[in-house]
Structure formats: C-alpha cells, structure tokens
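Reply to dn_fold:

You asked what the input looked like. This is it:
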Amino acid sequence: MDFPVDNCSIERTLEIVGEKWTFLVLREAFSGVRRFADMQAGTGAPRQVLSARLSRLVDEGLLRKVPYREPGQRQRDEYRLTDKGRDLYPLLVALMHWGDKYLAGDEGPPVLLTHRDCGAPIELRFRCADGHEVDGPREVTPVPGEGAHLTRA
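and this is what came back:
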C-alpha cells in the first residue's frame, strides 16, 4: 500500500481477538458450548483467564450473557454468540484450514467441517462483488477506503 494506514482494521481487530484463549473460547462457542464450566473443560483455560476473556467478549459485543438456573442452584449465565461474534466464523475456519494444511502432520486434520445438508467438506473461497474467484493477494489491489487518513505530499 502506498498510503499510510494509521487506523488499521487488522490491528483494531487483533486488539480484541488476537490472543490464544480468545480464539479457543470462540471455538467452543461456535461448537455450541455456552456454560463457563464446559468452556473451561474444552479450552483448558485457567478460571481467571477464562473469566477475563468472556468479560472482554461480552464487553465488545461478540458474546451476550443469558441467565439460566438449574433446579436448586443459583442463577448463572450462559454465553451466546451475537451476530458480531458469528461474523468471525470464517476467520476461525481459515485458521483451522491453515493449521490442517501446515501443522496437522501425517495423521491429517483432527476435525473436518462438512455441510450439514449434503455432507460435503466446507471450503473457504474469495470472490469479488462481481462474482469472480480471487486466488490470492496478487489478484487484490488495496485502495484507500472512506476511513483512510490520507496526507498530502
């Protein structure tokens, strides 16, 4: 890019989700896990770390708390994905596919994602708004967006 990016969307996103435990919490949420104890078991996160991550994801609007009460127990909260949180799903799938390709080893990927209706494997594809498939970064041209802070030379 030949223009300054002092308000980078990647940087701002990583300030929210750019930490291992956050991605593992999101992985659990996308798998349907909603309760603290179940998230802790699935992620292996220390209690304080998990509590902090859940609070941050709620504060950022990626998860919302929904109260529940088991018979004879005190009220607790479940954590459910919001639309903002669900929009991160392709990012997690992309990370998973990258890990499957480069880190899975000879045994292959530990989890395969398939389409519920037909059973075919899930693939991530890039397309432009006109429907053309984009194979990689060499086919992309960054241009200043409305939020670019351009300076005159």
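Residues 89-103 form the longest helix (15 residues).
Hope that clears it up.
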